[in-house]
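User: Show me a protein chain along with its predicted structure.
Assistant: Here is one chain, sequence first, then structure tokens.
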Amino acid sequence: MLTFTDPVADAEEAYEAMRALAHASRTFEQPEDMYGVLGDLLGSVRSLEQVLTQIATAHESSRDRAADDAGDRATGVRDALTTAGELRQAAALIGEAERRLDAASAAAGRIAWHPAAEMPEVGHRINVVFLQGGEADRLLDLIDQGGADAVIQELAGYDYGDETVDAALENGYVYDTPPQGLLDCTAQLDAYTLVYNQDHRHLALYRHMDVLPSPVLLGLEDPRHAATTTESPSSAIAAPSGVRAGPILAREAAREQSRRDRLGTPAIRREQPGRQTGRGLGR
């Protein structure tokens, strides 16, 4: 409970209040509430500047009672005056923070918040590929030179549509949102999200599990033939060597047709020149 007479008790009360606010302000259910919080913080900062100046003055006025642990008064006076000087510097910095906060509050007061638009459910993300160290160096350098889009287009070559989804489901590389560290950067292109870290030398590509990217946009299909391609969903499925093809073709075609019917998206058909060891690795 505030006393207005006991600085020790009131300082403890102020600390607990700020600690509670730091916890509560992690999220705002109603964005319009932020303006009122800023107003209260502005008043708090002004009071803090006053408190620091008053404590500095108290150190100066009480310096004749100061001494160090050994009883040396000269040292105590010097430390009291040093404390007062640092507190006045802190008060000056708080004054600058007050002016910035005042400007922020004024700008916030001009915002008219509208109800949030309902966002469509985008589903889970699967990991398409994860590369690190020497495998990632060339692509990370390419990000610096030409941007992330070119890297996403190249890494899209690791995406084999349903096969990639099945591998991610089997190995547990499915996420609500792409995993991201504090120092990671992200970039998006079509259905893909690229997460990369130049310092730690790694990058990973993710996409929405139930969305295939545009083959034309990513260079996976010739736009001149995109509208006329009528390939049968089972025509590109090949049975493993040494295994009876009939039952496998029927089962794989049925599974692929089921997913394609559900998603309404095309399967990715491309030559597979050689699988990279990084394809399908999680973080």
